[in-house]
Amino acid sequence: MLRKILKWITGGIGVLVALILIFYFLMYMVVSNKRDKTYNVEVRMFDIPSDSASIAEGAHIYATKGCADCHGEDLSGKTFLEDGMVGTIRAANLTFGKGGRPADYTDRDWILALRHGIKTDGKPLVIMPSYEYCKLADHDLANLIAYCKSVPAVDAEPALIKLGPLGTVLSGLDKLPLIPAEQIDHKAQYPQKIERSVSVEYGKYLTLSCTGCHKPNLKGGDNIVPGGTPVRDITASGNIGKWTLDQFIKVLRTGATPDGRQLKNEDMPWQMTKNYTDEELQALYLYLKTL
Question: What topology is assigned to 200-289 in CATH?
């Protein structure tokens, strides 16, 4: 009798292992097919400036959109995720140095990457949150590209995307935003320019940088990073409804909350938001208070 029980247990474990392997293989194939898909989109062109004022404005956009969190202050790229189960991800070197953009990288290539999440060969970019950048007005996107093109060349290691078992499964189940091109309406039209002002409308535009973590409704929820801190509600039903404008600005400039907590930058990137101008912070506060 004992032998039969052990045989059943061993057989059951064998079946379970086989099912897990089959499931993982299916997830691996789903992810591979997504990464190998070729996109053919129409790229709407616009002029990329080269004057110092536009480049300075582009530098501000780079600083306030969190680009440095992945690509570094010098745009050479850095490893921002290194986990055996989730994977290892090193962002691309955006300069024209070794391991970065090729010398023949065109303005169309920049727009294709930022607005559509697609590489020059038609394959999708991985991880890059183009689903946020695509909604920037042409004026702002052009200035951001102008800045990236102006940065001195830096030699660095090329981009690396190596998914671990958990990263593969989460990506296959669409729990990890791996392919930005899937989330973009490639035929959408975006405004040429958004006027900067202390207004609800401009504040709404600025929240493009917030939706990736705080969700499109800005109500927060589960962190997109497995095991990460849950993301807070930043509408009026959350702390924003309790904070004054001065308190809000202090939180986004220093990470220090009115109740005495010090926010970790990896949970709330205040090292990024501290670069916002007073006008931007006021507009953002106005809009969030309406939600």
Answer: Cytochrome Bc1 Complex; Chain D, domain 2 (1.10.760)
